């Protein structure tokens, strides 16, 4: 698959990038995408939620009323969950939400996500660029030139670039990552994926296995 390479002003450079069909033009596996996104979101959960149960509540242990003859249900402890101030019944406990997903499945999911974006013509290839210093204004100008100012965008660099990263950090609608940080969730969460030329080799090396 060939895609025109543009510069940071949105103008075509006259060159084309050859995107690997093994990564950007496969038959998408929607279930693999679902599982990888589910794992990513599960891994974000801290799992530190906790509610006090009746054994952890401070209170009297005396029997609060006689067993029979009251006409109401028997009750043996003020710490029971049926009373105000009592322990919570079947409350949340700390737990680990993460689960295992093998590497082959994760690679398939990322290839599927990139192929879905390619089918939607939501992938743009931009020549490598840098800023002299971190400036959010310069980064916004790049997004405007690419027609992505009001869209959620994912910019993928070949290698870490501090000036570009810091220039984008204040923008909620745009995220800058390196090719090694690419995930199915981030691809699917963006309206448009911007690939710098320097990132293509790393993406294809990591995913075309």
Lay out the secondary structure.
Elements: E1 2-6, E2 12-18, H1 21-24, H2 30-44, H3 103-119, E3 123-126, H4 136-145, E4 153-157, H5 162-168, E5 174-178, H6 184-189, E6 192-196, H7 197-207
Parallel strand pairs: 1-3, 3-6, 4-5, 4-6
Antiparallel strand pairs: 1-2
Protein name: Large ribosomal subunit protein uL4
Subunit structure: Part of the 50S ribosomal subunit.
InterPro entries: Ribosomal_uL4, Ribosomal_uL4-like, Ribosomal_uL4_dom_sf
How would you characterize this protein structure?
The protein is α/β, with parallel strands linked by helices and 209 residues long. The chain folds into two domains: 2-45 and 101-207, Ribosomal Protein L4, Chain: A (3-Layer(aba) Sandwich), CATH 3.40.1370; 49-96, no CATH class. 33% of the residues lie in helices and 15% in strands. It has seven helices and six strands, in the order E-E-H-H-H-E-H-E-H-E-H-E-H. It has a six-stranded mixed beta sheet with strand order 2-1-3-6-4-5. Strand 4 (153-157), helix 5 (162-168) and strand 5 (174-178) form a beta-alpha-beta unit. The longest helix is centred in the middle third of the chain and has 17 residues, at 103-119. It is elongated. It starts with a strand and ends with a helix. The relative contact order is 0.19. The model has no long low-confidence stretch (mean pLDDT 93).
């Amino acid at each position: 698959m060939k895609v025109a390479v543009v510069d940071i002003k949105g103008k075509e450079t006259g060159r084309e990038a050859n995107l690997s069909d093994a990564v950007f033009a496969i038959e998408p596996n929607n279930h693999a995408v679902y599982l990888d996104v589910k794992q990513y979101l599960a891994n974000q959960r801290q799992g530190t939620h906790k509610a006090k149960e009746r054994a952890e509540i401070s209170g009297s242990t005396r029997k609060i009323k006689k067993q029979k003859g009251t006409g109401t249900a028997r009750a043996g402890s003020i710490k029971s969950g049926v009373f105000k101030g009592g322990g919570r019944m079947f409350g949340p406990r700390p737990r680990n939400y993460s689960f295992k997903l093998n590497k082959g499945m994760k690679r398939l999911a990322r290839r599927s996500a990139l192929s879905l974006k390619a089918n939607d013509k939501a992938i743009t290839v931009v020549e490598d660029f840098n800023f002299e210093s971190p400036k959010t204004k310069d980064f916004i100008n790049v997004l405007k030139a690419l027609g992505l100012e009001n869209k959620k965008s994912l910019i993928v660099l070949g290698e870490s670039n501090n000036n570009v990263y810091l220039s984008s950090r204040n923008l909620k609608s745009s995220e800058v990552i390196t090719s090694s940080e690419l995930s199915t969730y981030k691809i699917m969460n963006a309206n448009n994926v911007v690939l710098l030329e320097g990132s293509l080799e790393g993406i294809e090396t990591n995913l075309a296995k």
